Every structure is written in structure tokens, then in C-alpha cells.
Amino acid sequence: MKLVVLAGGSGTRLWPLSRKLFPKQFIQLFEGKSLFQKTLIRNKLDSVTVVTNEQQYFLVIDQAKEDAYEEVGFILEPVGRNTAPAIALACFDSPVDEVILVTPSDHIIKNEGEYRKCLKKAENLANKGNLVTFGIAPTYPATGYGYIQAKGEDVLSFKEKPDLATANKYFKAGNYYWNSGMFAFKAGIFLEELKKYSPDIYKFAKQAYEKSVRDKQGMLRVKYDDMMAIPANSIDYAVMEKSSMVKVVPADIGWSDLGSYDEIADYFVDGEYQEDIAIDSENNFVVSTEGKIVSTAGVSDLVIIDTSDALLVAKKGETQKVKQVVEMLQAKGSSLINEHKTVHRPWGIYTVLLEQRNSYKIKTIEVKPKHKISFQKHEHRNEHWVVVSGEAIVTKEEETIVLSANQSTYIPKGVKHRLENPGDTPLVIIEAQVGSYVGEDDIIRYEDDYNRT
User: Which of 150, 167, 210, 312 is the 20 to 30 A CA-CA neighbour of 449?
Assistant: First the structure.
């Protein structure tokens, strides 16, 4: 059985911990692991393909390596078109008789023993030619999930997210399950059903796959125009709600998609995330990413999320309103919805230490061993580089110099340049930018080993 992990996301529901370039599945909040890492660990299969976007694949690589997952295949989408196209691309990239286990990377499963039993049932049903979905036994009348109506293993219907009265009806009926977004089927069977019920998605996904290219890292890269030609649709709408071959595996596995801070707080009932000092305070959920001492006095039932550049304080039961906060920030054009002060890149990371808009910015930059940034130039800023540790090869136009700790160089605006780490340990530099504009989009790339578009 082949594991296909869907690892996209917009990073809105768990802001400010999550951002567009760092969605919730990569937050290492769960025993030092991320939800993505827990997905890999939970599904120890020989063959793994991750469908993600070009801005996040290096997060996947780094976190997979932490858990000894060296052999991970990638399908890189230049733009998301929902789950049906993503799964279709993964199936085109698989033998027709191979059973595919499709799973999101942003949920949690507490009862892994029962989960493994459900996987075995799903694999058996898939081998018989069925499209299998996993129905989660509801623990309360939720309005935030879609539902599956079933009779035994037979799916009767799929239901949209209900209002509270309808959710209560489903909950009491006993044969309705939360739609988990997990599936199992043979690659060829899914593609046959996709061709039958959503022929346009099948046609254009097939074309996109056939015109895609594998780069030198072995990643399958889909071209932007080909991806945009595929109609955007979910697997439920495109196939599952129309096919007569759908079966459900009822799963009482302690599942949650952790879609709000309320759900995360409920997960950590052991009190792992609380105040350092609490005076006449109780039932608060507190996360401080910067290691600050957090103290409360006379407050209860709060969610407090402190990051390097944003602070969220919300009342428990109201944390779904975080989406509205993100919408307001977006309307203001704030970069806070996009990235943290520490930003992951294919070659390493950088952290913004100090910034004055339209004047200067100071960063630390860490380049991984044997990696380099793109050959590039800037139109509005000059850069000063000081090596803190490691060895740097610096290219400026036709000139190449080697710098060691405590040595520095100057990159005038308009000069093509590149920073490279030839060593076996991380290269750390301090970068001081000075200019009329120091935004991250002031960059023109000429050569890029990471095939960014």
C-alpha cells in the first residue's frame, strides 16, 4: 500500500502559530513533533508520496529527515486546485493496481491501535475494487465537519456541514459519521471513476501529469498553466458522492482535525501548555514560542498565543474568530499572515532581527551544508554580509571570494551575487540591508538550483 500525503494549507485557522508559508501541519507542538511528522510515523509504509506546493516542499524534506524518512516522493503543485486534482496526479504516478492510502497531514489520531485495524479493513475493501472512505464515529454534534450516512459498510449519502439542529439529528441517529478526508483505493479504479464522473478533471490532470517534469532531485513538478487548466474540485464532489463503488470503514480512533485553538486546548488536557505563573487563574491554554515567562492574574478560560511578532488573546469557545483576525490583517496588506520572523527556505533559514520600513533590515541567515542561494540581484537595497561561523563562498558578478568567521563583504544594489556553503556544518552570517525598499520581493533571480517559478 502506498501512502499519499496531502500537505497544502493556508495557515489561517491557527494564526499566529501558522502562516500561509507555515501552515498548521508543520507546527512542532505535539511532543516535539508536527502533525505532518505524526502522519508519517503513524503510517509506516514503504512507499510515500507527498503532494505539496513549491513554497513548502523543503519543510517536508527537513521534517521527514528528522524521522529517518529519506525516500519521499514529491508532486509539487504550483497552485492548489483542491483534493481531486491532487489525488489524480498521485494516481497517475502509481501502478494501476497499487492500493493508495490518501490522508491529510493536519489531523491527529489518538487510538493508533484501532487505526491500524481500520487500515487493514480499508485495504481489504480497496483490493476488492471499492473506493473506501473513513467515517469517524462522532463524539458530539459537530457543525464543522461534513457527514457520511451509512448502513454498515455501504455509504448511503454524503452530507454538507450541518446547522446545530441537523447535527443533533445526525448524532442521535447513530449511522452518521464525520467525513475524515482519508481514503483508500486502487489507483486505476479511482482514475476510472474520475473519468466517468468528472471527465474534465481526468483529462486535464492527465495532460498536466504527462507534461510535468522531474527535476534533478527527483521531484515531479507540474507546470503552472497546466495546473490552472484543471477544474478545481474536491474528491467528494468529483467522485465519492457520485460513485456506486464507495464503502465506509467506521473508525472510532480518537480523530480530530484540530481546526481551532479550542480543539487543540482540549487535546492537551494534561496541562502541558499553561502559564509559568498563574495567580487566581485557571483553565488557560498558553503557548509562547520565544520562551518568555507568561504570567496571569485573575483570568480564566483564555487562549494566549505569543510569537515573536504577534500576540493572540482569545476567550475559549470563541477561537474560530481567528479567521476574522486574519481577514482584517489581509485587508491591511499585513505580511503577518504570510510568514514568521524566522522563514524557511530550500537552502536554510533566515530570521529578521530588526527592520525599519523603507530604510533597513537586519537578518541572521543560516545556509545548510553544501547548499547555496540563487544567483540574484536587488534593485533597491545594498547588503553587508558578516560571517559568524562556517565558510562562505561569495560570488559577485565574475568575482569569487572565500570568507571565514569575522570577515565581511559588501554587495551594492544592482550587482548579481550568490552565497554558498561548501562546508559540512551550517554557514551563519549577519546580513544588513540598507536601501529605499527592503521588501522580500526585491529580488531578480538568474540561476536557481531549486527550480522556483
Answer: 210
